[in-house]
UniProtKB/TrEMBL annotation, chain B:
Organism listed in the record: Cyclopterus lumpus
A Pfam family this chain is assigned to: RGS
Annotated region (Disordered), positions in chain: 451-477
Localization of this protein: Membrane
Domain of life: Eukaryota
PANTHER family associated with the record: LP21163P (PTHR45746), REGULATOR OF G-PROTEIN SIGNALING 9 (PTHR45746:SF1)
A molecular-function term among this protein's GO annotations: GTPase activator activity
Entry GO CC: cytoplasm; neuron projection; plasma membrane
Protein's name in the database: Regulator of G-protein signaling 9
Amino acid sequence: MPLVNNKVGDDCTDEALADGKALVDSLIKVVACYRHLASCVGGCTDSLQLREELRQTREKAQMLSVAICSHLTSHLRNKRLPEGQRKEMELLWVAFSSSLELLHGDMCKVFNVAEIFSLANTDSLVQTGLQGGGSEVAARALSLPDLNRAQSPTLPAGLESQERSTMEQEIGQIEHMIDDMEMKVNVMRWMVEPHGPQYTDPLSSTDSASLALLSVDEEQPGRQPLCQRSQIFVLLLMFAVVLVAATLSVCVVFFS
Amino acid sequence: SSGEDIIAWLADRFQVDTQEARNFVSMLVALGYIYPLQDHRRLVIKPDASLYRFQTPYFWPTQQWPVEDTDYAIYLAKRNIRKRGILELHEQEHYNRLHKWMNHKWDFVVMQAKEQYRAAKERKKPDRVVFECQERAYWVVHRPPPGTVSAMDYGLDRLTDPNADEVTGLLCCSFKHYTPLTRSLCFLCSRRLVKYCSTYKSHDPFLSNCLPSNPWLTDDATYWSLNMPSVEIPTKMRVERWTFSFAELLSDPRGRDDFRLFLKKEFSGENLAFWEGCEDLKWGEAATMREKAEHIYKTFLARGAPRWINIDGKTMEVTVKGLKHPHRYVLDPAQTHIYMLMKKDSYGRYQKSPVFKDTVKKAICPEEHRYRHRRPSLSPIILRQMEQEQRAKMAANVDITQLCRFTTPVPHLAVYSGLTDFPTANASPPLPFLVHTPACPSPISVALESTSASERRVEAGGGEGDGDPAAARAPVGGHVSGSRVALSLRRLLRRGCTSASVFASLSPKCHSAAGTSVRIQPIIPDQPKNTVNTKFVFLEIKCDINQAVNDT
């Protein structure tokens, strides 16, 4: 009997672990997307749409974090958790708290910048050289295949201040959550050991190569004509060599 | 837009000249508001066609958001994901360091980097590139490559804001990202620190002049003699320190004496005596601890004790129980109680008492020492150097060929001026050696050599050098060298040299000659005649060598 019970218990926590991991992974994804969107605020691609996307991403992040918080707290406060499981939970905990901190930072930044750069005055937006918006990123964050924006681009002015107050509230909530977490669960950060290696492998060679090429182009545009010239020179040389070889062989055949 | 365009536009917009505009723009670039596209590592403005771009407000330094190491780690990991080995050396170092101390977060860092990378891929390629440039520029500003000047060192990150009235206010501002509890604690600590600094500022010998003068600077030890532990009349500064806190009063022996006097007048001296007894127990020897504890108990704590102290019942109970197995800290609760009692009650009354007021009135305030008349003593380093030079010269001038069987080769004359050598001196005859050299086969040649040497020496103030070894020897060497002289003279006579008479006849002349060459020095005490003579062998030979030859 006790064996069966234990087994059930293990399964439960394994599942819980897997759940927790999935949740944390998605939170990390959302936080990463939020950062990309946040970096566009105040720039020339800033628009109501961007703000809307930011808001939606933020809401999703908060939803996820509340879920993770309750999930992890309940499990970590369970004193009968086996040691291995506990370690995994603690890892998730550390990841969760770090993501929350990042999210909090980004939210504060967005809040500040949005205050300075009001959308009512689009001339004052900084020309950062960006072209497109963050719709694709937002789509990724919200795990939607496509974002159909059929809303009208103009919104009443009062909405901005409302937006600001809700944002303030949300920032406060996140702060509160962080504090709460520290109070409720005592995770010793220095005891947590990560799994992964120090350096991660490049994700995919083609992508990285193309990106590298692009960055090289960006970095040294002055050298481009030179490279091209040298390449053309080499090609010509090879062509000439081939031609000479061909004529020689023809001569040999012809005269022998 | 290109560099020169920016400068031109700024000059036009703000109605300033080109140089000013260039300065302003270079500052903008250094701080990260504009970043160069080529040569991104050097944040300078080049007035040519090189291209620049505006930084997005998210990465501006204006709001002084803290630059997190976590973000930096994620950024470096991202770049490494893109292309392995792209990190520069200083970035590699940073990466390894961050990996070490942020180890617990490392899984998160790597995952976040991957997610950010994937999210970036969702964007259009040009936008992706722009974002990467933006991020890169941000990190060049905040984590500059080694050897570059960072604009963040002063200015935005400067911790002392000249506009802030109170240091505490500023500290609060920089702590606004912390939790309220941490903030209030920091506030209290900083308040206390500021108060402590302002109270003790005038008493710190580094920050303000100590009266009469700092002995280390002026060689005048009046300050120390005035502030001795048991001095009769304390200085004003010292008395002022007693008013800062009770601990200060008790830690100063003179203060404690004063306090004891006051308590005697008030007939509550037993408190202080008990406290002192406890201190003695705490810091005393382990052997006498038991007796001390018993003595204290009998004197202060027992019922009907001669100097019974007034402590509450609970403490008394605890103490008595502890005294069954006494140890160093058995009387700690009682001591603390008495200390607090004295602090709250007697200390206040002491400060208002006639005893204290009298002390304050009598306290002296020494005048500041005008140390223009500082005694110029030669630094011991210089003295030693001169000594060494002297020895080297004398060692160099000793002619090896002049060795005879009565002499022993002395490689250098270090033993010459060493005090330690004198007890064993009979065995090794450094002095006789010197005395012998002129007595050995060809006094003339030696004399000639020594003449030149001694001439050189005298010119170089060599008398002083001689004086030094003499000084070193003087306390001991007085009579010893006298006997040496006798010894050497006897040997000389045995050998048939009449240099003894030479010495005798020469000595007055040479002494005068030597006398003139010796520079007066406050350190070297007066030399008895014979030591001077025996040392100045070379000089003696220098004078009237003809006479010596004639005599032989």
